[in-house]
């Protein structure tokens, strides 16, 4: 079981939904997160100047031995999934904001309340063209949603995550690349008092498993997603500036961050598509 999923399993008998402590900090995202917004744009001052690769063209994946500076962003969110019977009555829509605050005894002016409000906004955002998205606040809800999208009855379902525990900027070398197919769902954990994952699937994408190795010889199994249709992206998107290309050009790829959970299906009796 992927660590991000295992770490989100149900609360123990002595754990609380809300953990209040002086080290709890608000984390509304980073400049790097802004760079991944398909319809958005960023100022040049927000673009990292340390040589890291955030986007790349899909032909890179055919070049074994290529070196890349990568930073597998990992957000440490300790929140646990609610038990199913509790999750079913716990709302995640903005019109029920006060209801959640009352259920969890959260001060409306606290950072926790801001996190809950942001979670609701993220869950209610409309997806981009070809994107299907949904928020899951229980493991059962996530599995039900993913299996409905990936047609679990006819295909083998696989769940995994990027295996990297050293989340700083490092140089990696591509060792091996495997196409896993065009049917996948990626779930990102949102900062919230109880575990909520934003799961989404985008049409016209390919999922790859990429074997990487660091200079010290340690290997990392990472996932990369390539977007084959960028015609609807903002022309001023950072990816186009970084890669010197335009909307509708060659597929644009990026690695999946270390905190995300990747679900994909394999064709029957085959190892890939």
Name the helix and strand elements from N-terminus to C-terminus, one letter apiece: HHEEHHHEHEEEEEEHEE
The fraction of residues assigned to DSSP E strands is: 25-35%
Number of strands: 11
Tally of helical runs: 7
Q: Which value, in Å, is the CA radius of gyration?
A: 19 Å
Taking the alpha carbons of the first and last residues, their distance comes to 23 Å
Based on CA inertia axes, which overall geometry fits? globular
Oligomer: single chain
Q: Biggest sheet, open or closed, and with what strands and sense?
A: 6 strands, antiparallel
Strand order of the largest sheet: 1-10-9-8-5-2
Q: List unreliable stretches of 5+ residues.
A: 18-36
The SS-based structural class is alpha+beta
Arithmetic mean pLDDT: 81
Helix content: 10-25%
Keywords:
six-stranded antiparallel β-sheet, five-stranded antiparallel β-sheet, 7 helices
Describe this structure in words.
By secondary structure, the protein is of the alpha+beta class. Helices cover 19% and strands 26% of the residues. The two termini are 23 Å apart. Residues 18-36 have low confidence and may be disordered.
Write the layout of secondary structure elements.
Layout: H1 3-6, H2 31-34, E1 56-57, E2 67-70, H3 84-87, H4 97-104, H5 111-124, E3 131-136, H6 139-150, E4 156-160, E5 170-181, E6 184-190, E7 196-202, E8 205-214, E9 219-227, H7 238-243, E10 252-255, E11 261-266
